[in-house]
Every structure is written in structure tokens, then in C-alpha cells.
Model the fold of this input.
Amino acid sequence: MDSNTPHIITDLNLQIRFVSQAAAELLNKKKFTGLNLKELFEVESITDDLSIGSNQSHRFILDRHNCQDGYCFLLQEQKNNTEHLDFLVDAISSSSIGIWRYNIETKTIYLSDISRRILGVNPNIKLTWRKLLSLVHCDDRALFPLFFENHVQFGVPLQFEFRLKLSGQQSWFGLKGSCINKSSGQWINGTLQDCTVEKTTVIALNDADESKQLAIEAGKIGTWRATKSGNQWLWKWDMLANTIFKLSPEDIGDLNKWIELLHPEDKPRVQAALEDSLGTGVEFKQHYRSILKSGEVIYVFAQGRVGKNYKGEYCRIDGVCVDQTEIHTTQLALKKLNSELETRVNDRTAELHNTLQKAEQANRIKSEFLSMISHELRTPLNGIIGALDLLSHCPLSHEPKDLVETASTSANHLITILNDLLDLNKIEAGKLELETVKFNLPSVISNLVNTFSATAKEKGIELNIFESPADSLILKGDESRFLQILLNILSNAVKFTHCDSVPVKKITVETHINKLNIYQSEVCVSVSDTGVGMSNDTIQKLFTPFTQAEKSTTRKFGGTGLGLSICGKLIDLMGGKICVESKLGVGSKFTVTAPFWLELTENEIEDKSPLNCYIVGKLSDKNQHILTLLQSAFHTNIVNLENKQIISSADVSHNVVLTNDLDMFLDHIETLCAINKVIVYSDRSLVELIALSAPFLAVFANQPITLKLLEKQINAQQQDQLLIEDFSLDFDSDDSIEASLSEEDSPQTAEYDIHDILLVEDNPFNQKLIKSQLAKLGLSCDVANNGAEGFNFWHSGTYKLILTDCHMPKVDGYEMTKQIRTEEAKTDQPPVPIIAVTGAVMQGERDLCSSIGMNDFLCKPIRLNDIKSIMERWYEHST
Amino acid sequence: MNTQLNELKTLNRNTIIELVGDEPAKIAKFHVEFLKQASVILKGIVKSFNISDFKELKSQAHYLKTSARAVGAERCAYFLETIESYSLDQNKPAIKQVIIKLNGEFGAIKKELSHGK
Done:
């Protein structure tokens, strides 16, 4: 180094040994002997290669170099101090590095503005060491004294990170510093940086790494990789992979050790796949076996992906390997089990198939037998029923008649059971085919109600029918089977409502049709009763053949339990359903729903006839229903008679009165008399009274009523004539009562050869009655059927008394009396007492009888006491 | 309200007892006799009605009325008397309704007798 270069040579203790000319000029000093470099440049120590010192208010950079037995320091004056400082300040500011200084003795702290800002400390607040520590996270506070003391005492580098909570968020800070001895004392100077982002990233990375590691360890997944160095692939795998293959730690990275373990059958395939992946970059994915050193065979699945370098060359492969021996073993066991199960299932299926075939065959034989036996039983049974029917028409006394009736009922019941059995068989055998005929719901309901209305009335059951007025669509389906279902359900309702334990006996039938589309509609008929009801358990088994609701049901109510079973199967065939709601002791509701086709041909719109509907009093629910039905079938004009409004149009031939108020009805009776062909509907309780009060009016109960019945009653009202067949009392052939009495009809009347009383009466009933009465008094009479016969009898015989009816055909009682009295006068005979017997009770009648010559008067019907008095008065005193 | 009409019975069994005494067998015989007669006369009434022979109608109603009274068929007797009355007026629509009701009454008597036997 030449003398023009300002430099100073020192020994190892920094004692100055040589100062160059240039250095002396720069320092403006000539004598340096015995001086120490530290004294010369006012530095405490020189530890770094580059130091700054000052001499005579000039600052110098000391650039230290090693030389023989000492150091050579190159001097450079820092001519422009502020320029360097500005650079330093800018660098610190732009990098957000905070500066701090801490005096160890006084424990005072100085924080730069940046430090205060990043720590969130107000620049105006005087910050103490204690206060600073209070801001630090409690877990990190101990780091400060620990690092500071260790640094001061042992020279341990002062560098650590701590947390601070700023505005509710936790931030991380990095603190660095070093101790400096100055004339003003011992200081620690350092920097402070916000490292929250770096720290959070590191923590997240550590967390992810730990998580990945734990997962890999838990899954016993080994990892492996290889990197290409030149043409050489360098292999490495982790301990887990090593453990899978039970290799020694020193085997890690030796690919041959792994290859040696490959199962001979798998080795060519796996090696080729690996080479292919390394050469072409395709994914490596292989299941293979390895034979471990212990001879154990393991099943491994390995998968790896190949990566490229910036040149696009395949340079690395990373992958995993999993020991699947346990899974493989389990799969094998499962396969075996599956195979065994399959065999057992096949065996069992074959057995079941055989059993099913046998059962089906047995069922078929049973059905055929039942069908055959039912047919066979029906033939003689029909004979029995026919014979019993003929027998029942023969005159029989009471006891045989009863026996015939019992036999006939039983035979009919038996044939019903046989029919049910045949039906059930047919359905079960799939041989029952549904018919498709046109019908309408009102006709079905009419048939249903006609079948049961009389029975219900007889059993004291109130039967109500509520038909929806829109039910008159023409349907297509099996009308008779649908009716069969409804008959069965209503029959059950009647059966289970007619019971002593049921206080209010009521059955309600409601109907409606839902038009689903132009082709189809859904018919819904519900039958609800107040009968004995059922439990839920009973409902469940209701449609099972031969099952009655309760065991006691058969005993109590009879039946085979076939009816509902058949209904259930029939409705299934129809594609409908039967819903049952019931509560023990409260009643049941059966709702039958079935789909039917609609007749597509357009119905001719019939002209509705006009009808006047007179409402007398408040309209009851049942009368309201009648009104609804009327409005659906007629052009109905409603007239409220409360307003004394009378509309009696001659061209309105249909006139209906709806009333439930007898007094108000009687108030309007004269008005109603004037109305043409009027028909009255009322609640059943008032029907008889109205019918008696206004015998000239047709009076009907408003329930049970169907649309068909209503139309029939209204149309019948239009008929001027009566059909004779409607007035057959069916008594000409009904000898049941008479026959039962024939034995008791012993001739108590005294029979005398000579009768001195003559009865002239055209009515055989009255003849018998009076004869019987006379017999009761020990008397007898001859009987003449009219006045002419009576005169002849009198003329040819000797009678002490004549009883005669007044009104008779041919010659009446008056005429006969006149003839007798004339003849008596002619022949001078004493007048025979003639007693008028007449139904007329007026005084005028009595006077007429007296004026003609009759002696006394008896009013029909003749009481026994009256005839006795007459006999005492006229017969016993007669000569 | 017309209480008298309300009290009319379909079959007042006391009436016949007053006529022939309390002899069930004999009474039953008369009941049967009455129904047999009613069966025949009712058809005659309907025939007369259909040909509007009101005189014959009245006569038949009267004929049966005495029998009905005798057996205690009070409502029947009432309807028959009403037919007699309407026959005089030749009120055919009213007679038609009464005949229908009369028919119903015979049915009721028959039923009552069947139940009471």
C-alpha cells in the first residue's frame, strides 16, 4: 500500500505502529507514537470490519484489513455526513423499521416514530419500560427480561418475536438489538418490525404441515420421491414408507432394496410402469405385492405424479404408498362370506319356490274344490228354496208356517254364503271380470236405499241420504259390483247400528262425483253410522276373509266375515279404495271411492220443467237438501208464504211445499188448497199429522229421500189415474193371520133351528159382527143381504125383531120397512119391531127412520151393551 | 193444532172389544175379515176413481167405513169418510191423495196385526 493511500497499521491491540503520509495529512497530525487507534478515533471497540470514528470533529470510516501481526485500517473521511444519514433514514422509513434504544442503568427507553406507530403508541405519550411491557401479550412478557439479561450478561443475540393486541387484533413483532457501551452509559440499540403476515403464514404453514403429517401417519401412508440429477434419479422415502416394507433406516433411498422385495409376478409390471412414468410423465398407479424379508406378503397401493423443470423436462416424481394388506384380507373374507351367503340364498330361494308352487297348487285345488262344492250345493239348495216357497203359499197353521219361514230364511242365508264363497274364489283365482255398462249414480243410490229404507225404519234407525246434485253424469263401469259393495257396507251399518247399546240410531249416506277430466270421474259414497264402532286393531283386519271384527261379533251379529273381504277385493279390481274411520262406542264411517269412465256422447240437454217451491216457516237442513235437489232437476221458483205471496200459475203443474211448522202450515192450508197438484215435504215426525190435517195433499217425509224417489213422487203427482197394482194389499193370498186363527174360530154362536130375529145387512163383515154379538147374548138370526131379500124372509117366516141396515143396494132398509108396514096393514098383522142399524148419525136420519115406521135406531158400530138394550126393549117383550 | 186428528189411531183395539167382548181369537178373526174386505173394496175404490164414478166411490167408501169403525181402524174410517165427502164435491185430485193415504193405512194395519200376532 503506498503512502498516498490514507491508512494506519496497528498491532492486534490496536496500538498504532505506522501512519501513512496521506493519513497524517488527512488527520492533520504529525505525532502518533504510543497512541491507540480507539483513543485516536474515540471509539470504544472495533469489532467489525467497518467502523466509524471521529477525530477533531471529523468523522472517518475505518475499513479494517488483516495484516501481519495486526491490522491495516484504510481511512476515508465522511465529508458529507447528512447525505449518509438521510440515506439511512429513508431506508429505515421506507422499510417500516422501527428504531429503539434502551438504557440499561436508567431503564429508560426511546422509541422512534415508526416504532411508536407500529406498536400503536401515541407519539405524545411518554413511554416507560414498564408501560411498554404491559402492552405485550402476557405469554410473551417474560421474553423481554430473559433475552435482554442474557444478551447483556452472556452476549446471547438479542432477537425474538412477541405478540401485541392492537385494536382488538393480535399482531406479531420482531425485535433485534445489541448492547453498546458509550460514555453516556450502557445502551441497547435495536430495531422493531411488524412481522404479523410472515408469522401468521409460518404458523399456518406449520399447522398445515403438522396436519398433513398427522393424517399421513394416521393413514399409515408412506411418501416417496425421486429427483433427477443429470441422468441419475435420486430416490428418497420417509420412515413410514420404510416401515411398510420393514426396511432398515439405512436402506432409505436405495431403490434396489425396494425392487428386491417386489413379488416376482408383479415385479416386471411395476418396474415397467415406473420407468414409463419417469420417461413419459404419466401417472404411476399400481397395486402390487411385496415379499418382506420375514417372508410375509403385503399388498401395497402406490401412486405418484411426475413434475417438470423450467425446461419442460421430467425432473421429479412424488408419490405415496399405502399398505392395503388388511383391506385385502378383509375383502377376501367378505368375498368368501358373500359366496357362502349366495349359495345359501340360492338354496333357500329354490326351497321357497318349491314351497310356493306347492302352496299355489294346494290353493288352486282348494279353490276348485270350493267352487265345485258351492255349485253342487247350490243346485239342491235352489230346490229346497223353491219347495219352501211353494210350501209358504199353502194354507198352514201358525207353527208350521213359522217353521217354513225359518227354513226359508236359513236356506236363503246359506245361498248368500255360497254366492260370497264363489265370488271370493273367483276374485282370488283372477277369474272375476268387471263389466262395463252405462249407469248413473242416482240409480245406484236409489237401489241401495230402496233395499234398506224399510228395514231401517222397522229397526228404528234414522236413515238420511244426501246426494250431490251434480251426480247425474252417465258413468261407465261395473254398476252391479259397485252396488254390491255399497249394499254390503250399508247392510253392515244397519246390522251394527241396530243394537240395544246404541242410544241414537242414525245412518247417513252421502255421495258426490269428482270429475277428473272429460274421460274420467271419481265417485265417492260415504256411509256413516252411530253404531257400535271398532278399535284400530279391528279395522286392520277388517278386509281379511273369514275374519269378523271381534270374535264375539259372529255370535252377536252373525255373518261369515266374507262380505267386506269381497268388497275390498272388488274395489281393488276397480282401482278404488275403501277408507274406514271408526271409534268404539261412537260409530263408523266407510268411504268408498272408485274411478269410472264417463260417457262421452253429448247428453241432450233436457228442458227442465218449471216448479213452484213454497216455503212455509223456517227451512230445515233436510228441506234445504230437498230444495237443492229440486233446483238441480227443475226450474225452481221459490215462494215464501210468510209474505202471503201466492203464485198459482196454471202453467206450473209442479208445486212443492217445504215445511216444518205445522201451525204455520195450517194457517196457509186454504191457500195451498188452491194450488194445483201440490206435494208437501216435511220432517218425518210431522208427516202423519200433516197428512191427517190435509188429507187432500200428498205428504212425504224429507228423509230418507233420493233424487230418483223425489222425481218419482213429483211425477206421480201429475198422474190423474191410479194404478190398480199399486193398491194390492196382497191379502187375497195372505192367509197367515186367518190361518193362525182358524183353530180359535170355534163356533161359539148358538145355532138354533128356528131363528126369530132377521138381520138385513149387505156388508158381510157387519153380518158376521152382529151375528157374533147376538150369539154373545144367546141369540141367533137369519141374514138377508138386502131389502128385497129381507122382505121375502119376513114374508115367509115369523120374526120377533128385524135389524136392518138403511143403505143397501137394490132395495134399501127404508123401502123394505115401507113394504113390510104396508103388508102388515093389509093383512092386519101386528107390526114387527124394526130397528135401524146405520152409520149415519145425524138427527135427520133418525127422524126419517121414525117417519117410515122403524121402531128404534142403532148406530154403527153397535156396541154390545146397545144391542143388549135393544134386545131387552124390543125382543124380550115382543109377543 | 187439530188434536182430534192427532189422537186417531191406526188400530184402536179397544173398539172391537167393546163390540164383541175381550175375546182375542174372535177379534183377530174380525181383523182378518176386515183386511180381506178392505183388499177387495180398495180395488173397487180405485176403479171407481179412475172412471170418475163418484157415486159408486162414495158408496164403496161408506160400505167399508162401517167395517173400519167396527175394528177400530180410526184413521181408515176418517179417510173413507173424507172420500165420501170429496165424492160429493167430485174433487178428484183430493180423492186421489186420500186413496193413497188410505192404502198406506191398510198397510200399517196389516203390519200392526202381523207384529201383534
Residues 325-392 of chain A form the longest helix (68 residues). The mean pLDDT of chain A is 85. Residues 589 and 728 of chain A are 39 Å apart (CA to CA).
